[in-house]
Structure formats: structure tokens, C-alpha cells
Write a structure and sequence with these properties.
- The protein is an alpha/beta fold.
- It has one domain (2-247): Rossmann fold, CATH 3.40.50.720.
- 43% of the residues lie in helices and 14% in strands.
- It has helices at residues 2-26, 57-72, 102-113, 137-149, 167-181, 189-194, 220-224, 234-247; strands spanning 30-35, 80-85, 87-89, 116-119, 131-132, 134-136, 155-159, 165-166, 198-201.
- It has a three-stranded parallel beta sheet, sandwiched between helices. The protein has a two-stranded parallel ribbon with strand order 3-6.
- α2 links the parallel β1 and β2 (80-85).
- It is globular.
- The protein starts with a helix and ends with a helix.
- The relative contact order is 0.17.
């Protein structure tokens, strides 16, 4: 764990800082990945220090770099934009292994066993009802391209949909997208649970106190920067993603 922590700080903080120094020196745009993990277990997800309380070293490494950016924005002569990615899912994430999105893992589980697994309830949430802001990678690309086209926009911005949907929605959308490809009718969550297609497993002790059971981006700052496009719902994004996975 200590080694992992050192790697996180070296990669997410010190290396990012070296890139920031170079970009500011050369006066070239710097668009970087922050993370919604900086908010930790808070209930308000707005880009303000008062709402930030990371739960792990990954979140802390992102948080620490964001503080440097905040201090240096006033002296920057070129664009610096950090994006606090919420739960991103979509094509070309297979290389991430166990860190790939729950949508990817649900597709793999259903394809191999005909069922998907979700955590039982925790933190006051029912089984599979822990909710997060899931954002499709296509929307993430669109936001990045918008900022590349608007170099006058700098700052730290949430990059999510502004909606929280339960993990049950991910499971249901994934299964039904797979069923549609096979020419089968859609099922409700209740039917999937009854048929054993959705299975709830015990919440891991190792994650207790370190898990975000709820996230929902406040995207008012992103909208204020001029980004107006609508974001895909879980149902829309998962359907497109599953169709992609079925082809590769």
C-alpha cells in the first residue's frame, strides 16, 4: 500500500506538476484529468475547497494538484483546465483491468455467466441502490474538444452529467442491451433478480469508509463556461457501449 501511495503521488502529483511547469513556461494549453474522488464522502459536488475531503491516496493526489492549479491560475498566460471526471465508461477501457467501469465488468460477467453482480446495500442504501454520476466517454471527448476550441476558458470543472443513477440501472441497461442483440425482450430489474440474472454480493469490509456511495456533479461551472450539449443517460450510453463491445 505504501508503494502504491508513492506511485500515486509521483504520477498524479509530481509528474503533473512538471507538465504544468512546462506548459506555463511554453505558454501552451494544459488540459488535465482531475477526479470526483476529491469530494470523498461529501454530499455536495461543487468545485469549492469546502466540499473536498478525499477518502484515499488517489483522491488526495488529485486534490493536492488541484490546489496548486488554483494558486497558479492567476499568473497563467495560457489555458489550464482540469476536469473532475465522475464515473466514466465507454469504448477502449479494457486495458484498465479491474479498474475498468462497472458497465464493462457487467458486460463481461453477463457474456460469460448470464448474470451480473452488484454490492448489497450499505450507507443507508438498498441493494444496488448506491448511486453515482455515470458519464459516457463520448460526452467526455466532446467536453475536451470544446475546451480545446475555447482556450480562453481556464479553471477546474466537474465533468459529469449532473444526474445520479443507481448501479441497478447499469446492470439493467447492460443486460437488456445484451438481450436486444440476441433478439430477446427487455426485463425489469425485479424480473432479473427473480431469475438470478442480477445477484447481490456482500459489501467488502475493505471498502467500508472508503467508498463513494453517492456522487452527482454540479455542472453549473461547466455550463457557465459555455458548454451546452446534453449528456447521454445511462440507458443511452450503455446501449451504445454494449453494441460496441459485441463487435470487438
Amino acid at each position: 500500500m505504501a508503494t502504491d501511495g508513492r506511485y500515486m503521488m509521483e504520477n498524479n502529483y509530481r509528474y503533473s506538476l512538471a507538465l504544468l511547469d512546462y506548459c506555463l513556461d511554453q505558454e501552451v494549453p494544459y488540459l488535465y484529468a482531475s477526479s470526483a474522488s476529491v469530494y470523498g464522502g461529501r454530499r455536495v459536488f461543487a468545485e469549492s475547497r469546502s466540499h473536498e475531503s478525499p477518502l484515499n491516496v488517489y483522491g488526495y493526489s488529485k486534490f493536492l494538484f488541484d490546489q496548486v492549479v488554483r494558486r497558479r491560475l492567476s499568473e497563467a498566460n495560457s489555458q489550464v483546465a482540469g476536469f473532475r471526471y465522475f464515473n466514466v465508461y465507454g469504448p477502449r477501457e479494457q486495458h484498465k483491468g479491474r479498474m475498468a467501469s462497472v458497465a464493462f465488468h457487467h458486460y463481461q460477467q453477463y457474456s460469460s455467466s448470464g448474470k451480473v453482480k452488484l454490492f448489497e446495500g450499505c450507507d443507508g442504501y438498498g441493494d444496488g441502490e448506491q448511486s453515482r454520476d455515470f458519464v459516457y466517454v463520448g460526452d467526455v471527448i466532446d467536453v475536451n474538444m470544446f475546451f480545446l476550441d475555447h482556450p480562453e476558458q481556464s479553471g477546474i470543472f466537474n465533468l459529469g452529467t449532473g444526474r445520479a443513477q443507481p448501479f441497478n440501472d447499469i446492470a439493467t441497461a447492460t443486460v437488456n442491451a445484451c438481450r436486444a442483440i440476441d433478439g430477446q425482450p427487455a426485463l425489469s430489474l425485479a424480473a432479473m433478480v427473480e431469475q438470478g440474472i442480477v445477484e447481490y454480493i456482500p459489501f467488502p469490509d475493505a471498502l467500508k469508509g472508503k467508498y463513494q456511495s453517492f456522487t452527482c456533479a454540479d455542472i453549473s461551472r461547466l455550463r457557465g463556461a459555455g458548454y451546452r450539449q446534453a449528456f447521454a443517460s445511462v440507458e443511452q450510453g450503455i446501449t451504445e457501449y454494449v453494441n460496441y463491445l459485441a463487435r470487438v
